[in-house]
Amino acid sequence: MLINEIPNRKRKGKISAPMLMIAATLLFATMGMCVKFASSEYSTGEIVFYRGIIGAAMMLLLARTRGVALRTDLPSMHFWRSLIGVSALGLWFYAIGELPLSTAVTLNYISPIWMAVLLICSSALLGRRGVDARLACTVLVGFAGVVCMLQPTLKHDQLWAALMGLLSGLLTALAYLQVAALGRVGEPEVRIVFYFSIASISAGALATSLFSEWHAHTARGLGMLLAVGLLATLAQLLMTRAYAIGRILVNGSLQYLSIAWSYFYGVLVFYDSVTELALLGMGLIVIAGIAATRLRQSLAPANHINTAPGP
């Protein structure tokens, strides 16, 4: 039976897409807070490793429940998507541990602006129609927002973490392109997330063994790791459902609520100081991101992808 054929009385209890998005953004911001707490006890590699274990276990359960086979005929596509996505995730977690929470989250949310940059560059290289001036303006506004945010809020020793946060946004944009390509060839979301989780386990174990050390667990640390995995996976599922039943542009706009949630967590829990200029920068990035999403879909409708946060 098609959704439009379901009687209204059976749909009254359904949660709307905007409510799903609001809940997902709150969960993602809460996950970021837990990552920041966990980073005081674990290295970035360890957090990525345990995040992958929890994600893989949940995807195994979901695949079994839905009857989705996890075997794939596209191992190379999954490899590149997972490599880029795990790199973006690790850099984002590192930035969260080193920067004010709202700053790290905002830098990752610059991914729609990076996508606009990629669209402009691909149009120029392929000799397509001239670059849309409105799209170029969103890029400039977005980077102006970055300058406003980073100049007044960063200490000298936080510059490297800020650069890693910016790089995580770029890699996240590339990861979205890979996810879109996998979606176009029919790969289900459960399978994509499962292989991403397996890659997280491998990369996290390798990074921890080579560059840091494995830390002993505490009750608090285990709780934070479990929260990171559960919150991230549940938020992703809610967001995926929201995009399946809701309007893409509305969902894309609501995603930026994560920045607001993170700001409140940063101020109330971590006592982060945020200046007026930093708030202006956040606002510019939100405006530019929403505008870039709208323009990108109108300019390249065949290649649009949803911009869920995080890799």
Describe the structure.
It is a single chain. Helices cover 76% and strands 0% of the residues. It is mostly helical and 311 residues long. It has one domain. The two termini are 34 Å apart.
Brief descriptors of the model:
311 residues; mainly alpha; 13 helices; 76% helix; 0% strand; globular
Break the fold down into its secondary structure elements and pairings.
Layout: H1 8-11, H2 17-38, H3 44-66, H4 75-98, H5 101-108, H6 111-125, H7 133-153, H8 159-184, H9 189-211, H10 219-245, H11 248-254, H12 257-269, H13 276-299
Helix pairs in contact: 2-4, 2-10, 2-12, 3-4, 3-9, 3-10, 4-5, 4-8, 4-9, 5-8, 5-12, 6-7, 6-8, 6-13, 7-13
Low-confidence parts, pLDDT < 50 over ≥5 residues?
1-12, 301-309
* Tally of helical runs: 13
- Sheet-strand content, in percent, reads under 5%
Oligomer: single chain
| CA-based shape | globular
**Tell me about the biggest sheet?**
none
Nearest-integer average pLDDT = 83
Distance between the termini: 34 Å
Over all CA atoms, what is the radius of gyration?
19 Å
The helix content is over 70%
Count every beta strand, where a strand is a DSSP E run of 2 or more residues: 0
| Helix vs. strand class | mainly alpha
Number of domains: 1
Order of helices and strands: HHHHHHHHHHHHH
